Amino acid sequence: NCSSACAQCLDSTTTNCQACTTNFTLSGTICDSACLTGYGPSPTPNVCLACTYPCLTCYQTATNCTACNLTNTTYYLFPTGTTYSCVTSCPIAFYINLTAMACKACSGGCLDCKNNNYCYLCNQTANYLWYPNACAKPCPTQYYQHNPTNCSRCNYECYKCSYGPDNCSACQT
Question: 3-class DSSP state for residue 135?
């Protein structure tokens, strides 16, 4: 006789299942209420597929990671189109979110950032200009284009300025 979770088995243990009863899923040869660590839901109902290392869990394919293995090396979940992979460092225009253990995209135009609100380097090829901690195209209100790569702040009485901090085109109210 199979265990109560197994619909088909090689013997009566809970670890030699070939198919599971209703409300159980098969991870390798083990039936459980959900996919076990190292497995993820597959296109086949009630069957979990083995994830490819370094995926800790996966979805629909062995390489579409939903969580990364952190046992020997630190990995971060990285979006690759419509799927996710695990990487040891985030590529350009992404930063490490330690809470999610994932690579998150820098805000628009930023190539190197600390987080979504703090940019170090803007995409100059796409004409983004750096101003304190962010990128813009063109410079935001109360800033003017100081040089080909940076925006600088207008003087406090200027709402808008151009070609210099004192060259106001609109004043503060």
Answer: strand
